[in-house]
């Protein structure tokens, strides 16, 4: 019975091009094309947002709007609306007047007194953090808290001010766990009462008219916004880099596989160097 002829071993290792044209690497290239296409679409979307629309007209933030026309509970405040003057109605929650330190008012450092305003006529319990006024020292701020607590009888009031984005909470000093140096509704929420199933606005309101014997918070109109959002342009460039990296990753993996085959070939041939080409 005849034996099959032995398969002759190749004289040279495969070239890099031959490895890249194998089915496995072509399939991976197609996958990279899909991934790069998604990244390119995301970059185009970010670029569109960077130049989408015109900036608000001069003085737009000075027009007093109902708060529900500016932002909804739980939503972030869009950059063009930061500093927008708004109005709403609600009642103060007794026991939720809190002090925020390190507040500068017309060049002088002091304290803000804040309160939880429960929005009137809301479909569900909804709260807005309000910076009510400024005090030059902690004793004056505590006295204002006492007066505001005493006056909080549940009556509904109208309030106007500027909407400002959450400054972000920071960890308090170890010896002062209740101290707050940032105006953050997220941080205030941890000290408020009756918060179960409570909707909360992410930005806070800097009140125009102070209460409780406090000083009005200095809150000038924000600077006019440019029509170009450079942060979105930066994100668009990032997505383009990610798309290019997908192809580089495919090339690097294919080249690594080719280099391993060359090494295996050289070991099998006893270290002889047939001088393969890489293309």
Plain-language structure description:
The chain is α/β, with parallel strands linked by helices and 279 residues long. It has 2 domains: 16-48 and 230-268; 60-207, no CATH class. Helix content is 33%, strand content 19%. It has helices spanning 16-20, 23-50, 138-151, 185-189, 230-268; strands spanning 65-66, 85-92, 98-105, 108-119, 126-135, 157-164, 199-200, 204-207. It has a 5-stranded mixed barrel with strand order 2-4-5-8-6. Strand 3 (98-105) and strand 4 form a beta hairpin. It starts with 15 loop residues before the first helix and ends in an 11-residue tail after the last helix.
Helix and strand layout, with pairings?
Elements: H1 16-20, H2 23-50, E1 65-66, E2 85-92, E3 98-105, E4 108-119, E5 126-135, H3 138-151, E6 157-164, H4 185-189, E7 199-200, E8 204-207, H5 230-268
Helix pairs in contact: 2-5
Quickly list its features.
279 residues; alpha/beta; 2 domains; 5-stranded mixed β-barrel
Please bin the fraction of helical residues: 25-40%
Q: H/E series, N to C?
A: HHEEEEEHEHEEH
Return Rg in Å. Answer: 32 Å
From the N-terminal CA to the C-terminal CA, the straight-line distance is 43 Å
Major sheet size, sense and barrel closure: 5 strands, mixed, barrel
Count of the domains: 2
Unreliable residue runs: none
Strand order of the largest sheet: 2-4-5-8-6
Shape: elongated
Count up the helices.
5
Query: What is the arithmetic mean of pLDDT?
Result: 86
- Taken as a percent bin, the fraction of beta residues is 15-25%
Q: What structural class is derived from the secondary structure elements?
A: alpha/beta
Number of strands: 8
Oligomer kind: single chain
